[in-house]
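Teaching assistant here, posting this on the class forum so everyone can see the example we discussed in section. The complex has three components, and the goal was to see what a joint structure prediction looks like when all of them are supplied at once.
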Amino acid sequence: MGNSAREFFASRRGRVVKENFTAYLFLAPAATLIGLFGLFPVAFAFFVSLHRWRRFPDHYSGLANYEKALGNLAFILFFWLALLLLATGFLLIRRLRANLSDSRRVVDYAQIACGLVLGYSILLVVDWFFKLIPIVMVIPRQVRGQNTSLELFMEKLGESFLHADVLLAGNQMLAALLCSALVVAVLLRRFPHQLRGQVIAQSMGVITAILGGIFLLQLTLAEIDAALAAARESGEALPIWSQLVFVTCGACLLALAWVIFQRGIRATENRRFLVLILAGISLAVGGYLLMAEMPAALTSADEDLLQGFWITIMYALGTVPVQLSIGLLLAYLLFQPIRYRAFFRMVYFIPYITPFVATSIVFRIIFNAPETAPANRMLSIFGIEPQRWILERNPVGELLGLPDFLAGPALALVVIMIYSTWTYIGYDAVIFLAGLGNIPGELYEAARIDGASGWRIFRHITLPMLSPTVFFLSLVAIIGTFQAFTQIWILRTGAVGSKVNTASVYIFDELQNSNRYGYASSMAFVLFAMILALTLFQNRVMGRRVFYG
Amino acid sequence: MYKKLSIFLMLLVLSLGLAQAQNEVSYEGVDPSGQTVVYWHQYSDDSTQANTMSALIDEFNSTNEYGITVEAIHQGSYGPIEDLMNTAILSGELPNLVAGYANAVAGWANEGVVVDINLLLNSPEWGIPAEEQQNLNFDLLDVNQLDFPPFHGMRVAWANQNSLNVFYTNLDIVEALGFERRAPQTLAEFEEISCAAGASDMYQGYPLDTGTSHFESFVAAHGGAIFDKDAGEYIFGSDEVVATMEMFTRMLDNNCAYLFAERYQNTGDFSVGITPFAAGSSAGIPFITWDAAAAEMTDEWIITAFPGAESVGPTLQLFVPSQAILTATAEAEVATWLFVKFLAGADAQLAWSGATGYFSIRNDIEVTADDFTEPRMPFERFLEVQGILQDESLSVYSSPGLPSYSAVRGIVPNVIAEVVNGDSEAAAALDELNGEAAELHDDLDS
Amino acid sequence: MAESTRNLSSIAKPPSGFDWSKLGIYTVLFAGVIVAVGPFLWMISASFMTLSEVSLTRLLPENLLWENYSTALRRANFLDIELVTDPVTGILQSISVSGYLWNSLRITLISVVGSLAVCIPAAYAFARMNFVGRNVIFALFLSTMMIPGIVMLIPHLLTVIWLGRLSESLFGPAGAWFNNWPSLTVPFFASVFNIFLLRQFFLQIPNDLWDAARIDGAGHPRFLRSVVLPLSKAPIMTIITLGFIGSWNALMWPLLVTINDDWRPIAVGLANFVTADTPGDLNLQMAASVITVIPILILYFLAQKQFTEGIAQTGIRG
């Protein structure tokens, strides 16, 4: 036996199996922890968001929390999400077909069957787990008034596995797992050398995506029906369907415009005009549809949340470009032949490493409202009126006398932006500096021989060669600003009210003040979806322009 | 139809009664010997309060006949304590005694983790006898007795002290501004002097706090409240609240008041002598005294109740920092109660009030200058506040002890900021706030 | 990397008299220095002031009030060293150290070591091994970076509570997670950022080295131990420094999972001190802040060469 095993691992196939095995072993600790503290929380938050849930689970409430947060848009988004999952499923089916050999063999079908069974059992495991969780969660409630010893908790934990619903789901799960084990065993025995992990994995993906999509679609449709019925009862018109159709069309047209535009740029001269007009039309129509329908879809949304998203966007727009350009400028200057480079580099990094709690106290004093505050004393040198800084909820545009649509963020938010920029510039500069160092010197020499000026060199060599760095940093910065919390939380003042509350801060307030976990989770989930969508978008749009030497 | 309904209601009442009866714990014959009581408090390390409390705890630990040990842990101010309580409720690992105001405790009681102190207070074996109870100031203690559903008269917490939101006046500044050398008698007078201060070169107007408590103090000064305890609803749309909001807006617009950023900057500015007035908790009196001494501010300043609207007279807002006993075994609950009872005793009360300047919950002790054990404490100031309380015309206000109040408290400053900045009209914004508060009331107080 | 110190000198024009552009560069760079450390220097200066000097935002204190530091140290419970001596012989029996500084030091040490132990093998697997689902798993890992912290708060809490109960029933009270080091460190062991950073570095290690090692009969574990790790001082130093910064500055999470001073870290201590329910003294808050920042600055000055180079080498190339 030992001999044959050694022989097996010495064979080419054996080496592959061994490498897979070792890799999974290497990954195991990280994967377990990321599963527990990265992926499970998302699933759990989603689960909570479908319930009325204060500190403890109350009852299932469907999309009510999302509806409270986003109004009718919630239905539309969930509809999209369901379609997206279904589309992923069908896409995977196509991939799967391409993956199979032309002459279908028994082994192919067997592998697909195996994947389907495995995927289904995974879904059943999830189902069982989420039936178990609410029961486990209320244990602390049950043991009240007793001597809360560990034994008591473990005893109750054991009992919760035997709860009727959990037991049923557990049995189904076990049966399915047994079934899949059987299928895998048969497969291994019958086709020991022809199995391909990819086919099995894809089949698993197919069934998960399609069943998940069906689940979401059902949920959404049921919720829409319920909302319509409720509206009929109270005699109101609720144009969910028309909103759904129009908003979807609008979004599709926008996407179409983008696709056509991309094609158009590459098209030949005489066709380009036509294509661009086409793009323009679909952009205009799509934009019109969205602008016309969105406000109606959002009428019953949580205004504070919408304001939070808007503030988040302003915060991102106000910090990321500034932070990146100043970082790049400093890095570029540091890259010149100067002395004390190491000193400068070290000093610029200090704001990044000091705790927020410590530095924010200083910023509060600098940007305080009295005339004697340092920022105001600075202004008075230039003969400018003192400002109220972190106490100022009026938008900067208004303070500068600009028209309303240029109002921009509250001055207090600008102060927080300055603080945040101050914190991260050094980090950006150091990474940019590294990126500059990676550009081969020959490129510059060649450009100089061609007689290029300093600015042209920067524009046509430095920037393109730096584009991966810019891409990386802007990705990190945008994700960071969308999650920004601590800086704002510690620098905000009562006088500014909600004008600096980004989505994260608003959600945290909601969580802390009223302990409505279900509602807070639904909003947090929307935020997550937004960050994800933004990242994918950035990846597609910016990722294309990145030049990887 | 009505018959059916009334039968249904009767059944409901009966079942509630039964549920209540089942919950009734009997503390008679329970033996609290050898229990450990974990107490989460908010007194910062090395403060007079913390040191006095730990001395009292040492005394209790060494003298109680059951060998009960109290373990006190400082958990930061009320905010962090509430965060930790969330964790504790979720995990089931609760302390035995925890500091909090009535509204926060009501939220915990909603989750069923709070002991009804009435059961212990009136217990024949462990309680405080009726004749002894007469020495306790129940006007104060009843802030923690919640008379509305779902609490039905449950006493969710117990206080062993109280403080007041008081009003400070710098007499020298008032005189320098050309007014009579006394505290303002009415809100109109207060506003007039503040405006004069704001217009002068030497001084600033009134440091306006946008916090909810401060707002409520002025609502009370207008003769109103934010919650109608009889009707059981928030009344942010009422005339008094709107009038308060309009006063805030007017004062800020006319440079009679200003906003500030740092916590306690209002009393800080007062103590260096740049504003004629400030408002704050009486617990802050020592800090004003010490800061004034450090800044060598020699002006004469006095403590009074808030000036009221014409027909209202002086008002004060009561703060009753309390402790809740949390569910545990009957033995542990009794042990915790014994410690609470010890703190309510005459000796402990005298020691506590004497050292910290908080006011006692007992009627039968009189704290005199000799009882102030902490040498730096400005005891004459506290006697000054006690003097205010003797005023017959004084009306006393306290915030509603509702779980939803915690959430509403979080929104009010945003609305104040919105209105005083002129972003929306006072009445409209307050109406909207009332809607939100009603929703929270529906959602959280059941 | 040598490249990072290479510059444009090779293409710079020969100096002709006084170089005005140099003056401009230095002006901008020095302005940057003032902006970067100005607030920090003032924090130090203010920590020696009287309260009224801070309120008036004086630039420098009239007298150096060193006692601010001793008061802050005592009041904020940052460090407490107790020497237990035998009452009879007077011989030192044990030293007990407590306080937030000590807690943060312990937490940081555990989380950095744990993070390295978890992340290095994972990054190695992603960089240098072929296995089914590598790209999918890596994408899944990366996507967790986009999850807003606010989503995680409650699930993390429950996970920590129940994992703690399980481990407690296995290992007894020492196995507790809640209010103990595991809840403060274990959730941060598998840092996706660290894995990403290390993977980028491991990808750059020449394949020849691996071929040579294979000929010598080394497998992946040995190659990792004897070739890859010795080459990876810079990224590891980077991770250590970033981990130190991260756990030193962590605030919200420790606030939730510590219920007494046994393991409560320094940022929570500082926040409690700053937002205490009694009016704070700004000068003492400044002193406490400076005390908090000093250890991190010391580490940074010691490690900054490898640290900045580590970021330089591994931060990019997407």
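For the discussion questions: Chain B touches chain A at residues 25, 82-83, 86, 89-94, 107, 111-113, 209-211, 258-262, 327-330, 404, 406-407, 409-411, 413-418, 421, 423, 440, 443-444 (CB under 8 Å). DSSP finds 18 helices and 16 strands in chain B. Think about how each of these relates to the inputs above.
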